């Protein structure tokens, strides 16, 4: 009886034509204004999705900076400026990368 019921219900497509167009456009590197929602006078209205993450309890987390105002202190060891690195022949950048564990 369960098989008959499953066969009777049509499956909804996982992506519609609008979603496919948006996916292809973004993959081609075109800027995305979001999903077109209509016109308000002479203004085009678009809707953007928020990049929200949820924790294991289902609570939406927007990120450490957004929620706590926290910015990691990196003033102690910062990379060399472009011109400092240029004048050192890349030596300062290599030293910085070695300190950070890069390469």
Question: Could you explain the architecture of this structure?
Answer:
This protein is α+β, with helices and mostly antiparallel strands. It is built from 5 helices and 4 strands. The strands form 2 sheets. The protein has a two-stranded antiparallel ribbon. Strands 3-4 form a two-stranded antiparallel sheet. A hairpin with a 5-residue loop joins strand 3 and strand 4. The chain starts with a helix and ends with a helix.
Write a concise keyword list for the protein shown above.
103 residues, alpha+beta, two-stranded antiparallel sheet, 5 helices, elongated
Oligomer: single chain
Which term fits the overall shape?
A: elongated
Helical residue percent band = 25-40%
Count the strands?
Answer: 4
Alpha carbon gap, first and last residue: 61 Å
Put simply, the count of helices is 5
Order of strands across the widest beta sheet? 1-2
Share in β-strands: 5-15%
Describe the secondary-structure layout.
Layout lengths: L1 H7 L8 H11 L7 E6 L2 E5 L5 E2 L5 E2 L2 H5 L13 H6 L3 H10 L3
Antiparallel strand pairs: 1-2, 3-4
